[in-house]
Structures are given as C-alpha cells and as structure tokens.
Specification:
531 residues, 5 domains, 4-stranded antiparallel β-sheet, 3-stranded antiparallel β-sheet, 24 helices, HNH nuclease domain-containing protein
C-alpha cells in the first residue's frame, strides 16, 4: 500500500469506525474529491467502491428513492429536449434513473404540472462538481451513491442537471464566477457536439496568417451532413463556432513548407533549392499566390536566402562547365549533340561572353565527336541515349496528343532497354525482389516520373516533366515505394559521388544503376539558364 492510500484509509477509519462507508460525498465532500483525484491519476480503471473495499471497508450504494422520480417536471424536461441538442429522452432517463420508455410515457401523459426541478443557487457540492467537469472536459459525471451530473449548453445558454439520493435539480441561472469559468472553456454556449466539431479543425499558419484546416475529409462531411439536417449553412455554422477563416485540408502550412525546405539548407546555413525542382516550383507557386517572391516567403519561414554574386557565379559556372565537359570526354574527344540540354545551355552561356563552343573546346584541349563516331565508341548504351535525346527534340506543345502518347511509349521502351530491364534502385547484384521474366524473354519493370506529371501547370512544365531525364526504370516494388513510403520521393539530388532520390522528409534513397541522369549537368544547365 502506498503512502497516499495509507492516509486515505486512516481518514476513512476516522469517519467510519464501524468500517461501513455510507454516503461519503455528503459526509465529507472535499475528502471524496481527494479520493476521486487520486484514483483518476493513479488508478484510472478502478472505481470508488472497488477501491474502498480494497482498503478493508464495506461500501453501501444508494439508489434514488421513488419520491425523486414520482413528481415529474414536465415543463422543464420538454424545454430541455427542445432547446439543448445534447439532451434527449435517453439522457433524461439516465439522469432520473428510469427507462427511456418510461420517460416517453410520462412526457405524453401531460405537458405541464408536476414538481418544479428548477433550482436557484448552487450548493457547494454542485459548485465543486462543475469545476471538476470543466477541468476534466466532462459533459456527464457519474459518482458515488448513484449520483449523476450533466453540464452542457446551447444558444439559450448553459444548463447544469444534477441528481443525487436527495433530489433532482436543474440550473439555468449561474453567478458571475461560474459564468466566467464556463466562458473560459466556451462551455457557456457550445454543446458537446459543437466542441467535437471544433476539434475536427486544427489551427495552422499559412504565410504568417492563422487559418483553420480540417483534420480529415470524413469529419468535414459529417459536419456538412449535420448542417444539412438542421437547415443551416456550413460556413455560417463554423463561423459561429469560431472556426474562421478556413483553408482546404490539402493546403501545405508554413510548418509543412519549413520541413520540406530544410534538407536544402547547406552547412553555411543558407537555403539553396535546386532550380526547376519540384520544391522550387512549389515554393515559387506558394509565394506567387500571396503576392511575394520565393525569397520573401523563405525568409518569412526563417531561412537565410542566398544572395547572388553574378561575377563569381559566372566564373564558377565556367569552371564547372569545363569539369563537366572533361568528365564526358574520352581520349581528348567529347560528344555534344546540338539538340542536347548541355549543348544549348553552354551555347547561350558562351554567346553572352563572345566565345564559341569550338574555341571553348580548343581552349580546354578537346575535340568534338560527330554522331557516328560517338555511336561506334560508346556502343549500344550510347545509341539508346542518342535515340532518347532525338525523341525529346520536339516540344510537347508542338506535337499532337496522339504523337505525344506514341513518343512517351517509345521513351518507356528505350529506358527499359537501356537498363536491360533492371531496377535502378535494386541494381544488378542480388536485387531486393526476384525479377519477373515475361513470355518474350524480357523482365517486367516500370518507368516512374520522379516529379509527377500531374504537378505540371503549363505546356512548358509538361515538356520538362515528360522527359527521360525525369524518368527512372524501377521494379514494381520500388515504383510503389517511391510513390508512397513516408510521403514519397519527388526530387533527385547528389550525395557525394552518389545520385539519390530525396523524400519529402529529407530521406535519401541511392540509385545503384544510372546511365542517363547526370545531376551535376542538369543542375548546372538549369542554374546557368538564369544568368
């Protein structure tokens, strides 16, 4: 027995030396509250009677006498049922201690007369019960001696119903202290149903403005059904509950955006979001919706934005272009197709600085290969990559829908051939799941768009996303995995010398096979286009 139980047993022995506990709440209400609080905190599943008996006492339960229920207050009960949505015949039956059928029968016997259960002024016991119910967020409170209290509200105001072994009392009027206590938790005007509806929304920040966002679609549908049945407008009802303004449940909050951008903060504390990544596109769209720049919104979120030094950037990009071109070279030669992204970006970069690609290559000691030389030198993989580049030479908005569908099918076929139907995440050695061989001798695999096509808003966006550089060859398991695991993976980054997928929560998933994506080239190309 712990020290608290020892103190409680000693007090019970003093109050009931015959070891028979009878009417504890009436004999010492404050002591009863102490026991109630102790049980709630330390033994929430144990009832008062069970606990008292465990201390070596007998416990006498009392029931309401016939005099409590015989004189029915028809007028008050009718008023409660008509004006308080939490109160119906079942609740009245629970309060009085009789069956619902008996309540229905009594209500049909007469509409007036009977005893008046309305009371003026709270007893000390009732005042304490109200405090407990507000603190514990209770609407129905049952306690010893078969007693019960109900506390709810409506636009008519609050009501407190109390039954113990002595009487039934209805309270519609309260003193200033109790009214203030009720108002502090909005218990003076909202029912339990109203409070449940309020809890169906969470308060969130969007561009430093507070909004209410539904926690689930089901809860919103339930509230709409509730409003429809009562002939009230959904928006007006929520505004009465203090739920205003409202945003769609799919809208990302400031906290959501902070977590999404956090992986792009460098060791120097500066935020650098890759150009044309889904994160950068979404950030720009969010900022535009509220009439600000991406930098302004990022700084609202608390990030340090990069400040561009164009002279330094020019030199850095020039050096990086040299490194990238040399990485693509072989024995002093390099293949740069004129319709490729790297060629176009390098061409525009050099043109603004009065230099040609030819002089640039000569300066770094390289000679440009033609297509046939490239194919003969790099074999089948090179030929497939060349076909992929040729396939993307026509813009999406320059071809018809049928041609676009046909082109997409060709891209899928070429990517699968490029990787010999292997998953880029599994790799070729001991894949996570066995490969599925088809009747034609090839293996089953799927092509996945890293940034979903559904996020495109313009024809230019479609052109960028429906591209082999935004596609991966994956097994069915990893295709589902990158779509749904922990929110999905929607970006490609480089981690050291490894190309990885990046999840919305910042987790990295390496690509063990990669023949067609050079992230360094893509990032350099995209960032140089800004200059």
């Amino acid at each position: 027995m712990d020290s608290d139980s020892q103190i409680i047993r000693d007090r019970l022995t003093y109050l009931y030396p015959n070891k028979i506990v009878d009417g504890l709440s009436g004999k010492d209400r404050s002591f009863y509250s102490v026991i109630y609080g102790y049980l709630k905190e330390n033994h929430p599943g144990v009832g008062l009677e069970e606990y008292v008996r465990s201390l070596g006492f007998d416990y006498i339960r009392r029931s309401a006498g016939n005099n409590v229920v015989n004189d029915f207050d028809f007028a008050s009960v009718h008023y409660l049922i008509e004006n308080f949505e939490d109160i119906n015949q079942t609740v009245i039956a629970q309060l009085i201690g009789i069956s619902r059928q008996r309540v229905s029968q009594r209500l049909h016997e007469a509409t007036q007369g009977g005893r008046d259960w309305r009371a003026s002024g709270l007893t000390d016991e009732e005042r304490l019960i109200i405090q407990i119910m507000i603190e514990e967020d209770l609407y129905v409170f049952e306690y010893d001696d078969n007693s019960i209290a109900i506390l709810t509200a409506s636009p008519k105001g609050p009501v407190f119903l109390h039954r113990n072994v002595e009487s039934i009392r209805f309270h519609f009027d309260f003193d200033h202290e109790i009214l203030q206590l009720l108002a502090s938790k909005d218990r003076n005007r909202f029912s339990e149903v109203n409070h449940d509806h309020r809890r169906a929304f969470e308060q969130v920040s969007v561009v430093n403005q507070l909004y209410f966002r539904p926690t689930s679609n089901d809860s919103t549908l339930n509230i709409r059904y509730y409003c429809y049945n009562r002939g009230i407008e959904f928006e007006e009802y929520l505004e009465e509950l203090g739920i205003h303004p409202i945003i769609d449940g799919r809208v990302l909050t400031d906290e959501d955006w902070f977590n999404r951008l956090l992986p792009y903060v460098g060791s120097d504390g500066v935020l650098r979001v890759p150009h044309r990544s889904s994160a950068q596109t979404g950030l720009a769209r969010r900022a535009r919706e509220f009439g600000m720049s991406a930098q302004e919104y990022a700084e609202i979120l608390g990030f340090q934005w990069r400040h561009r030094d164009f002279a330094s950037e020019h030199q850095r990009h020039l050096v990086r272009y040299e490194e990238l071109i040399k990485e693509q070279s072989f024995d002093g030669f390099v293949y740069l197709p004129s319709d490729g992204g790297l060629y176009r970006a390098l061409y525009h970069f050099l043109r603004g600085r009065y230099e040609t690609i030819q002089t640039f290559l000569e300066r770094i000691g390289l000679e440009r290969l033609n297509k046939e030389e490239y194919r003969s030198r790099f074999g089948i993989a090179g030929a497939i990559l060349e076909k992929l580049k040729e396939l993307q030479s026509d813009s999406q908005y320059e071809i018809g829908s049928d041609e676009r569908i046909a082109r997409n099918k060709k891209m899928v076929t070429l990517l699968k051939k490029l990787y010999d139907y292997h998953c880029q995440i599994c790799g070729t050695d001991l894949p996570l799941i066995p490969r599925i061989e088809k009747d034609d001798g090839t293996y089953y695999c799927e092509v996945h768009h890293v940034t979903p096509l559904g996020t495109a808003e313009t024809a230019a966006d479609v052109e960028t996303l429906d591209h082999y550089l935004n596609a991966l060859c994956l097994c069915s398991y990893h295709h589902s995995y990158v779509h749904y695991y922990k929110g999905g993976y929607s970006d490609i980054i480089i981690d050291g010398d490894q190309i990885c997928l990046l999840s919305v929560h910042g987790e990295k998933l390496p690509l063990l096979l990669n023949k067609h994506i050079n992230l360094e080239i893509r990032e350099c190309v995209e960032s140089c286009e800004e200059i």
